[in-house]
Amino acid sequence: MIRKQTILHCDVVVVGAGASGIPAAVTLARFGKNVILLEEMPTIGGTMISGLGGLPICGLFKHNAKKPFELVNNGLAKELYEAILLEDPRAVECMGREHVLWCGVKQFDAICKNWIKKESRIQLITACSNVKIEEQNQRIVRIGFQDRNAHEFWIETKGVIDCSGNGVVVRNSSAQCIEPENPALAGIVFRVSDVIQNDLLPIKVPYILRKAVEKGLLPNYCRFTVYMPREQGFGFCKISIPTEIDMVQAKKVSDHIFEILHRMLPEFLTAKKIETSKRILQREGVRMKGQYLLTREDVSQGRRFKDSIAYGAWPMEFWNIEDGPSYSYVANGSTYDIPLRALKSNNIKNLWAAGRLISVDSAALASARVIGTCVATGEAAGRDAAKAVR
Amino acid sequence: MKNIEKALVTQVANILFVETSEIEVETPLHVLGVDSMGMVGILVFIETEYGIDLMSSDLQLSDIESISALVRTIKRRQGK
Q1: Is-contact A367 A10, C-beta < 8 A?
Q2: Which residues partner with A132 through β-bridges?
Q3: Count of CB atoms within 10 A of residue A23's CB?
Q4: B23: which chain A residues are within 8 Å (Cβ-Cβ)?
Q5: Which chain A residue lies closest to B36 (C-alpha atoms)?
Q6: Could you tell me how many helices (H) and strands (E) chain A has, helices first?
Q7: CATH number of the domain that B18 lies in?
């Protein structure tokens, strides 16, 4: 049997329809470029959606922000902020020394779909698999994939932006990569309802779990579980897990954690576990080696670059298996520059990366991977790719 | 009283990886940068050091909001 292939054409392929891929595609389209946006999941939204809306958007506001909140990046990050605020004027919340923006799954999905819908130049294809890359003279010339019906496609393209988080293009091409030696803990989120509210729950939950760990009831990493209360008795638990743990194990651990909270905390007596994230949320994995490697020093000193294309401000948030979370802030509560060179492949001429695939060391990624910064790097990659494929 | 305060300042400084001189006892701990996990660390420290299990009592957030609030709470419990 001869299997049919369909050939598609576009200016730029964006791989991954999440917090960086959607801004990249929208920016390209606004510059008049034809974009194909590929997504492996049946739905768009990436980690924001997989995280059930239990992860607030970080990295949007400057340090010690006061009303009116000063934004780190303009452009689509600002559009996102304004769209969310329109629905919920109280979406900004103080978290430690920083401010975050809460956005539910439905709202984020609606904003993203609205962005995409307005751009006729974006062709979105979800549930893609088996992505293959063809290169010529250090350029990517074709990207192959299968759609949900296992129909094979090849896209002829002038440029590619990898926004996939797990590095689909970077790993399947000859692009040079950065392999993390000791990747940060991954995460899984579950949502609860009917919790009796108590200001102390964000402390009580990890306290009870620490005691359970000390009794040998739970693995050590469960000590770093965070509880985030939401309105009307809803809340989210975020469990940090070692990267080698699979979804089946993670689900079991999350059930066990809920069962312990239910048994030990009066506030959880009537609580129900209503939803668990469908996949493991990675904080760090293989990423692209760019023309510049943004380092811990660059971030902590708030370094400036001539080819700066976006700003970061979120503290470097280290998630370590022994000690749990710790934070290192940008000097003087300032911001740092992300240079364009960190978004451009070191060896493939028409490949860009955005989101958590940019060229950064582990410490710099611990700041740059947050959603607010992902939006900004996605947009910046889209802008530069639009110029390059003229 | 001063000793408890000093011990807590050292504890908080360790959690935040900063010098003890940077810790102000009246400033809310979350403003200093102590997260929920850090708070758990402080509560466990108080349990082991002073034998006071704050969590099993009817604690309010304001009782543990800052180092000075913690010192007052510990003193109150010790007086009982």
Answers
A1: no
A2: A144
A3: 31
A4: none
A5: A203
A6: 10, 19
A7: 1.10.1200.10
Q: Which two tokens stand for residue B36?
A: 């929920």
Structure tokens at A143: 């990207």
Q: Is the pLDDT of residue B72 over 80?
A: yes
Q: Per the CB < 8 Å rule, is A207 touching B59?
A: no
CB atoms within 10 A of CB B10: 13
The angle formed by the CA atoms of residues A202, A207 and A209, to the nearest 5 degrees, is 105
Q: Which of A94, A207, A326 sits opposite B43 (nearest CB)?
A: A207
From chain B, which residues contact A within 8 Å (Cβ)?
Answer: 17, 30-37, 39-40, 43-44, 55, 59-61, 64
Cβ count near B48 (within 10 Å): 8
Residue A150 sits at the chain B interface (C-beta within 8 Å): no
Between CA A54 and CA A281 the distance in angstroms is 12
Nearest CA in chain A to B35: A96
Partners of residue A223 in chain B, C-beta under 8 Å: 37, 40
Domain that holds residue B32: 2-78
pTM of the model: 0.91
ipTM, interface predicted TM-score of the complex: 0.92
pLDDT beyond 90 at A69: no
Residue-wise pLDDT for A17-57, tens only, equals 999 999 999 999 999 999 999 999 999 999 889 888 888 99
pLDDT of amino acid A169: 97
Report, in this order, helix, strand and coil percent for chain A, each rounded to 5. Answer: 30, 30, 40
Mind listing the pLDDT tens digit for each residue in A242-273?
989 999 999 999 999 999 999 999 999 999 99
Chain A residue numbers with beta carbons less than 8 Å from the beta carbon of B61 are 199-200
Judge: B37–A206 Cβ closer than 8 Å, yes or no: yes
Tell me the Cα Rg of chain A: 21
The count of domains in chain B is 1
Taking the C-alpha atoms of residue A334 and residue A138, their distance in angstroms, rounded to an integer, is: 38
Closest by CA position to A265, among listed A350, A342, A207, A327? A207
Q: Which residue in chain A has the smallest CA separation from B30?
A: A96
B59: chain A residues, CB-CB within 8 Å: 200
Q: Are the Cβ atoms of B43 and A96 closer than 8 angstroms?
A: no
**Pairwise CA distance, residues A200 & B54, whole Å:** 12
A69-75: long-range contacts (C-beta < 8 A, 24 or more apart)? A69/A99, A72/A311, A72/A312, A72/A313, A72/A335, A72/A372, A72/A373, A72/A376, A73/A310, A73/A311, A73/A372, A73/A373, A73/A375, A73/A376, A75/A23, A75/A27, A75/A376, A75/A379
A197 touches chain B (CB under 8 A): no
State whether B37 and A329 contact (CB < 8 Å): no
